[in-house]
Amino acid sequence: MPLDKRLLQQAKLAQTNLVLTIVLGYAAFGVVVVQAFYLSRIINQVFLEGQSLFSHDKGVWQLLLILFGLSLLRAGLVWSSQVTAQRVAGQIKNHLRERLTTHLFTLGPTYTQGERSGELTNTAIEGIEALDAYFSQYIPQLAMSVLIPVTMLMVVFPLDFISGLVLLLTAPLIPIFMILIGSWAETLTNRQWISLSRMSAHFLDVLQGLTTLKLLGRSRQQIETIALISDRFRQTTMEVLRVAFLSALVLELVSTLSTAIVAVEIGLRLLYGHLAFEQAFFVLILAPEFYLPLRQLGTRFHAGLSGVTAIRRIFEILETASANKKAQFLQKTELLFPLKTIHFDNVHYVYDDGTRPALKSVSFTIDLGQKIAVVGPSGAGKSTLVQLLLRFIEPQQGHILVNGLPLNDFELSAWRAQVAWLPQQPYLFHVSVIENLRLANPKATMEQVRWATHQANATTFIEALPQGYDTIIGERGARLSGGQAQRLALARAFLKDAPFLILDESTANLDPEQESQIQAAMKQLLHGRTALIIAHRLKTIYQADQILVMSAGQIIERGTHDGLLQQRGLYHRLVKATN
Q1: Comma-separated ranges of CATH 3.40.50.300 domains in the chain
Q2: Top-confidence range, 244-248, 386-390, 424-428
Q3: Which helix (H) or strand (E) covers residue 399, if one does?
């Protein structure tokens, strides 16, 4: 298994516990050497010197007590080493999970929409969890497989040069076989991980679209597809296990044959009187312990291989440059207060490496307290404006200026604290109502939450839920209607109390009664705030201070509702089409 420098850098996060794990493991080996010494002495005294348990002169009971104490000490050291090893893995996994989650949020929906959510979820959960064996077993064992054999040779060579030479010559056989089998195992593990990722992605896609599949009568077909994918994963898993067992067999065979060679050469020299019994027995006891770390390294290798395969995907995500990565953050983020103007200055943006233009020379200004509406056909560039303002992406040409300063000069979290975004389909999590609301303001009191829901006309339906504010609403608000979900999103905006609002189709796909309630709440929310409104229902933006009409990534018309109607251009046609 190649040592990835990026993985070793992660190990530095738990350097203290990692060093402690190795030290404790090495100390346990030291106890083994001392145990072998006392065991060989006890057997020599009993069988050759005629000592009994309670002999008149010496007896071996004291040595047996020492041996028993050493056994307890060894058990304690091994247990302590395992505990610290788990701490190493836990620290690194928690750090990586937080880092990966934060980076995915930084990349924003522009990145995640191009990926399969099931695959990303599998990477963030199973992928990081697979690193446990790598850091808790493989890395410590890698150090032990060097330290213990070297120390063992230093002990054996002064006692028995020939046995030390045999150990030295046979030791490389185990790593050689491990490398030969390891390349095959790594290929199969890569295939297994890809199969698991695809299965996870497809399964989540099916779950998310289950209602649609049932309506179209295609759910049964997906059962067969999932069964096929699962069987493919089973086959790849069995291939990995077959290689792992084969590797264990080969390593055990090599170490057993090597130990047998040591035993034979020691036995022959003992038989001809060229070696003392106690010395020979001591070396013979240590021989299996010499090969044990190398054998265990092979086992740990296979245990940690899944983590190494997963980390490639994790680092691929982490090394994906976010749009904000090169921003030079100002130290004085208070320059955002108060928010006076937002100005788009000749902004360009192109998707898919320049093949799909989204914005071309877009320039406009939003002054303090203004309500600017943006309309246009699908694909006109409206959503790109929202992503630029939320800093999910950055302008490729031109600038977005806030209070006369480039937007990307401000620290990302400081800017987003000034913005409340109401998307067309607000995302609600599988937690309680109050937890969903407090995403906007984690420190909000219950009084503030109730005030926000009252302003959003959401109090009545929330209190009618089985557990009120503590009711679990399901993933994506599965237990709520579209209007109820929108009102919770509005309550979030009230709770955040941001000076700048982005409203993206917040009344689309609602019945007239729901729309009326949301419009009333939205009017209250907009009062005294600066806002950018993206809308297809044009009647919702007739009173906007300025309306921008976009087509093919450009602003082709701008003005008030009455003024644009008089121009009889695209806006006139859109209004006429909706009436």
Answers
A1: 333-578
A2: 386-390
A3: strand 397-402
Residue type, 481: S
pLDDT of residue 143 exceeding 70: yes
Alpha-carbon gap, residue 298 to 294, rounded angstroms:
7
Whether 548 contacts 364, CB under 8 Å:
yes
Q: Quick one: pLDDT at residue 328?
A: 46
Query: Other C-beta atoms within 10 Å of 342: how many?
Result: 21
Query: What is the rounded CA–CA span in Å between residue 485 and residue 265?
Result: 80
Chain mean position to CA 387: 24
We find that the CATH architecture of domain 333-578 is 3-Layer(aba) Sandwich (3.40)
* 364, β-bridge pairs: 344
Helices (H), ranges, 123-218: 128-129, 131-133, 139-159, 161-170, 173-208, 210-216
Q: Where exactly does CATH 1.20.1560.10 map onto the chain?
A: 5-318
Residue reference for tokens 């979290």 = 413
Closest CA to 364 of 342, 396, 390: 342
Mean pLDDT of the chain: 83
> Considering only 238-247, 286-295, 503-512, which range has the smallest mean pLDDT?
503-512
Q: What order do you get walking across the sheet with 397-402 strand by strand?
A: 356-367, 341-351, 397-402, 405-406
- pTM comes to 0.69
Strands of the sheet containing 500-504, edge to edge, are 419-422, 500-504, 530-534, 371-375, 546-551, 554-559
Tokens of 220: 């049964």
Assign 21 a pLDDT band (cuts: 50, 70, 90): very high
Distance in angstroms (rounded) separating the CA atoms of residues 46 and 373: 97
CATH code of the region 5-318:
1.20.1560.10
